Amino acid sequence: MRPLVFYCRWQRARLRLQGRDERFVWGELALEDGRLEPFRYELATRRLERGAGASRVALWLDDRGVVIPS
Fold this sequence. Notes:
By secondary structure, the protein is mainly β. Helix content is 14%, strand content 41%.
């Protein structure tokens, strides 16, 4: 979960965790401008899904929380 925490630092967002199981962590990102954005983070692959519905974006993070270009 460390890459997710680093990612939030770089994005100046706060994690609001709502749940966790052996595979995923999910909740909301509280952004600087006051918006809340849902997220789901897959622990094994470091895959972060931001947003919901048609605006959902998938990102992969490295060990330091930096987005890996696809």
